[in-house]
Design a protein that fits this description.
It contains 17 helices and 28 strands. It is of the alpha/beta class and about 550 residues long. The strands form seven sheets. The chain has a nine-stranded mixed beta sheet, with helices on both faces. It has a four-stranded parallel beta sheet with strand order 7-6-8-9. The protein has a four-stranded antiparallel beta sheet with strand order 19-20-22-23. Helix 13 crosses helix 14 and helix 16 crosses helix 17. The protein is globular and about 75 Å long.
């Protein structure tokens, strides 16, 4: 049986990969707006379930805020009235710098209602980076967390950008910290839902900058549409009734495309419940388990780094994860050892997925439909035609290494980089979006990700993928995480060097170093073994928690 969703059809109970593909079809409408799709749920059903900031307001610190779909529609309409009264028009850019909270969702939906463009901004950015992104995006308005703004030194910015500080969880109403803003001009008429085309601009999403300076990725409203097949697959939610029962959560910051379009808006689009929790510090394993247990989280997006920290820093009980059935993990490679630990200890299915800010939710596992794999990412999700191509754009046969590319047209592919035509032309052609990632397809159609093309280590003429070497290192029981890079070498051009975090800090010695180097040589060949292994206490990370490969 095939189910119909807004913009596509999908089998309701697929039993294999071929059946999944055969039952899928894009049915992209002439008009598509993220807010309209996100607000289709039952008006009385709970859309948002939020754990307030425990340090911000004692009156609500121990009270869960719930917002129904009907309340979410009313709240976003009230804010849209005020935005329109303040002169926000279609195409204007509205920046949002808030932690996870209902106020952020309301602002997104209010802007989309008007046809405005949202610029999510990380709470973790320093003042200089924050000012750069806001200036580069040429925003008309900024909604910023009160605590974050108090610590900022950006007086000049306020002179050019209309700035509204938001006290998250100021009250327990659906509007929360936006109540005063929305009530200042409450006499206006609710503007109609903007009649946006699927590819009309909706977002400027800044990349996390793991290997270069962040770029502003312009995505249309159809970015949500293009993300939906992957969401159904990795969370195993194909029937409307089961989808509506979803309680989804991620610890990742909502300024990241992976959080917004792997969890927040897809969950709203299927009528489920989004769980949120204010976090102003690093990932806390015990806090994460508390959120899952007390809020009955059924599905979660946990990046590999978060799973690793759970393994290292928390004593997990069956009661804490009893509600949890599926974890999707992505954003960086997921070591097999970490995935196995999560499945056995948390008693969940772990599906790894692959995508980019430029093109989200492209491929991965869906173990409720087809078998998972230890040797690759998984298969392309329905609606996305992927290939491994050579420098000329010609698809390569299975087994050959090339650049992963996405065939166009595809609703999840970006419109381009903001004000950067050169960078856009370098990756976005008439036929393909070049991802900049290396990969190869196996004979069974499974895609293997081999890292960024610009991160290859070329040693004595051999092209070495850092991810291949890292995968071997993290399979060793003593290794918690690894980062492999190339260093200049006068004879080889480059040599392979590894930084390794151990499960038991302080246990690194020459014997273990030799064993790790031998493990790589045995599995991948002696030309790929690290010249040196450095034992470190932690790896550098980006604001999204991914390993930062731009730092040595």
């Amino acid at each position: 049986m095939t189910g119909s969703w807004t913009g596509y059809t999908l089998p309701t109970s697929p039993t294999g990969y071929d059946e999944l593909l055969d039952g899928f079809e894009w049915q992209i409408p002439g008009e598509y707006n993220i807010a309209a799709v996100a607000l289709e749920g039952d008006p009385e059903a709970v859309a948002l379930r939020h754990l307030p900031d425990r340090g911000s307001n004692a009156a609500v610190s121990d009270t869960v805020r719930t917002v129904t779909y009907g309340e979410l529609a009313s709240a976003s309409a009230a804010v849209a009235i005020r935005l329109a009264a303040d002169g926000v028009t279609p195409g204007d850019r509205v920046a949002v710098c808030l932690p996870q909270c209902p106020e952020q969702v309301v602002l997104h939906l209010a802007a989309y209602r008007l046809g405005a463009v949202v610029v999510p901004v990380s709470m973790l950015l320093g003042d200089a980076s924050l000012e750069h992104q806001l200036t580069h995006a040429d925003v008309s308005a900024l909604f910023v967390d009160e605590q974050r703004w108090t610590s900022a030194d950006l007086d000049e910015l306020q002179e050019t950008v209309s700035t509204v500080t938001v006290r998250v969880d100021a009250d327990s109403s659906p509007l929360g910290g936006l109540t005063r803003f929305a009530s200042d001009r409450s006499g206006g008429t609710t503007p109609p839902m903007a009649r946006t085309a699927p590819d009309d601009p909706a977002l400027v999403l800044y990349t996390s900058g793991t290997s270069s300076e962040p770029k502003g990725v312009v995505q249309g409203h159809q970015y949500l549409l293009g993300s939906m097949p992957g969401y159904h697959c990795w969370f195993d939610r194909f029937e409307p009734e089961t989808a509506e029962a979803t309680r989804a959560w991620t610890p990742s910051e909502w300024a990241w495309a992976g959080a917004l379009f792997d969890v927040v808006f897809p969950t709203l689009a299927v009528g489920g419940t989004v769980v949120s929790s204010v976090r102003r510090r690093g990932f806390d394993p015990e806090r994460a388990l508390d959120v899952v247990e007390t809020q009955g989280v059924t599905h979660a997006f946990l990046p590999p780094t978060a799973l690793r920290k759970l393994r290292e820093g928390a004593a997990v009980s069956e009661e804490q994860t009893a509600s949890l059935s599926v974890i999707m993990s992505g954003g960086e490679p997921l070591p097999n050892s970490v995935a196995t630990w999560a499945e056995e200890t948390l008693d969940v299915t772990v599906n790894e997925a692959y995508g980019q800010t430029e093109a989200n939710a492209l491929a991965g596992e869906a173990q409720g439909v087809y078998p998972g794999t230890d040797d690759g990412l998984g298969r392309p999700y329905p609606g996305h035609d992927l290939a491994v191509i050579d420098d000329d754009g010609t698809p390569l046969p299975a087994g050959e290494v090339g650049e992963i590319a996405v065939a166009r047209p595809d609703p999840v592919v970006m419109k381009g980089y903001l004000d950067d035509p050169h960078a856009t032309q370098a990756v976005l052609g008439e036929e393909w979006l070049r991802t900049g990632d290396l990969g190869r397809f196996g004979p069974d159609g499974v895609l293997e990700h081999l890292g960024r093309a610009d991160e290859l280590v070329v040693s004595s003429g051999y092209r070495i993928s850092p991810l291949e070497v890292e995968s071997v290192l993290t399979d060793h029981p003593s290794v918690a995480a690894a980062l492999v890079r190339g260093e200049p070498d006068p004879e080889r051009g480059q040599r392979v060097v590894a930084s390794v975090v151990l499960v038991d800090e302080g246990s690194g010695d020459e014997v273990l170093e030799d064993r790790l180097r031998s493990a790589v040589a045995d599995r991948l060949g002696p030309h790929k073994k690290p010249h040196a292994v450095e034992f470190v206490t932690e790896l550098p990370t980006t604001r999204t928690g991914k390993t930062d490969r731009s730092k040595d």
